[in-house]
Design brief:
The chain has two domains: 5-161, Creatine Amidinohydrolase, Chain A, domain 1 (3-Layer(aba) Sandwich), CATH 3.40.350.10; 167-388, Creatinase/methionine aminopeptidase superfamily (Creatine Amidinohydrolase). It is built from eleven helices and 17 strands. It has helices at residues 5-9, 21-37, 48-55, 86-92, 107-117, 137-146, 155-161, 167-190, 197-210, 269-287, 295-305, and strands at 42-45, 67-71, 78-82, 97-101, 125-128, 150-153, 221-223, 242-251, 254-263, 316-325, 328-336, 348-351, 355-358, 361-363, 367-372, 375-378, 387-388. The protein has a six-stranded mixed sheet with strand order 4-3-2-1-5-6, with helices on both faces. The chain has a five-stranded antiparallel sheet with strand order 11-10-12-15-16. It has a four-stranded mixed sheet with strand order 7-8-9-17. The longest helix is centred in the middle third of the chain and has 24 residues, at 167-190. It is elongated, with a radius of gyration of 22 Å.
Length: 389
């Protein structure tokens, strides 16, 4: 695909762009088509997943206010970048018009100043990430009072545009799944009676870092106390403990996670029963993940497998895996009630139909699944049988 003259004028090659300039152009084009269809004149995107996806910019300190300005017409984009992150911007971002934000400045006033300079301050409908963790309420109110147009939340819409992955994105997700596999394997190997949950975490983090894993959007979980989202507390592992691990591999901000549960010593009858339920749900629900299947059907299937154990579920059995930043990696698609999405080829979804708080144990087995026209492809390669150490 040739780069349009309009975009080329506002573009510069960056040495560490995640994908080609042509692919970024396609993303901008798809976004502008959506803007035109929904009468959005201007985007001010402050959610890092969104400005990364469109501009390539990979920041670290996402607590800073930073914004990508996207006019609906074929005009250059503008990135407002915090001064502390400028080198990261130079390395990864193709957008030529980059304006520096100092932390002590009035962030919204600077945004409005740039919009006035570019003649964009009169937009009638302005798309903003009103559901984002990264836009302070005070900033949203200031934008609303400083602009003449209506603010429209575009968080879900931009998330949906990112759901179906390109070949380049799928390759990053494959690599991320491999990093996650290496991390959880190191954790499995570290588990035995007498070690602590912190020893297990150390083994996981060493393996992930050694193999190129980046910082995750959500903590690595290692728990031997029966919680769902527990992290190490120094607990010494004893016979009868179940150790739940959830490890994410991250490559160019693309996340893939894996969940496995290990039993120290001979598993009880209860633990074997929980494992059988979870494994059945995992296998049946994974097989059902084919293009054209409504999310609701998969949710109903998992609920059927969990029948009689409803009190041990948490209502979400998986979600799409995406570019992600703290505090969370959950994408637009969620395997839970009332989600309107339909499974499509090119999506990558984590399937994790576990049971928690069951007599002091959590049983979780989770994999990442690439949806293809030929059926689901599990990206993780660590066996999913009950692991006994």
């Amino acid at each position: 695909m040739a780069v349009s003259p309009e975009l080329e004028r506002g573009a510069r090659p960056a040495p560490r762009m995640a994908v080609s300039l042509e692919e970024y152009q396609g993303r901008v084009g798809k976004t502008r088509e959506w803007m035109k269809e929904n009468q959005i004149d201007l985007l001010i995107l402050t959610q890092p997943e969104h400005y990364n996806w469109l501009s390539g910019y990979e920041p670290t300190s996402v607590f800073y206010y930073q914004a990508l300005i996207v006019p609906v017409e074929d005009e250059p984009l503008t990135l407002l970048c915090n001064k502390a992150e400028l080198l990261l911007c130079e390395e990864t971002c193709w957008v030529e018009d980059v304006r520096t934000l100092w932390t002590h400045e009035d962030q919204v006033a600077k945004t409005l100043e740039v919009l006035r300079e570019r003649g964009l301050d009169g937009a009638s409908r302005v798309g903003v990430n009103l559901m984002s963790y990264h836009l302070k309420a005070s900033y949203a109110f200031e934008l609303e009072s400083g602009l003449s147009g209506e603010l429209v939340d575009v968080s879900v819409a931009i998330d949906d545009l990112r759901l179906v992955k390109s070949p380049a994105e799928i390759e990053y997700l494959r690599r991320a799944a491999h990093v996650a596999d290496l991390g959880v394997t190191a954790g499995i190997n570290a588990i035995h009676e007498g070690v602590t949950d912190r020893d297990v975490m150390a083994a996981i983090q060493h393996a992930v870092s050694l193999n190129g894993g980046e910082f995750p959007a959500y903590p690595t979980l290692v728990d031997a106390r029966g919680t769902l989202h527990g992290t190490p507390v120094g607990k010494i592992l004893r016979k009868g403990d179940t150790v739940y691990m959830e490890v994410s591999g991250v490559v160019r901000r693309y996340h893939c996670n894996i969940s496995r549960t290990v039993v120290v010593g001979e598993p009880s009858k209860k633990i074997r029963e929980l494992y059988a339920i979870v494994k059945d749900a995992l296998d049946r629900a994974t097989a059902a993940m084919v293009p054209g299947t409504p999310v609701s059907e998969i949710v109903d299937l998992v609920a059927e497998c969990h029948k009689g154990h409803e009190q041990n579920t948490w209502g979400r059995f998986g979600f799409s895996m995406e570019i992600a930043y703290p505090p969370i990696w959950i994408g637009a698609l969620s395997l839970m009630k009332n989600d309107p999405h339909v499974i499509e080829a090119g999506q990558v979804i984590t399937m994790e139909p576990g049971l928690a708080y069951a007599d002091g144990a959590t049983m979780m087995i989770g994999n990442n699944v690439l949806i293809t026209d030929h059926g689901p492809e599990v990206l993780n390669n660590v066996p999913s049988e009950l692991i006994v150490k």
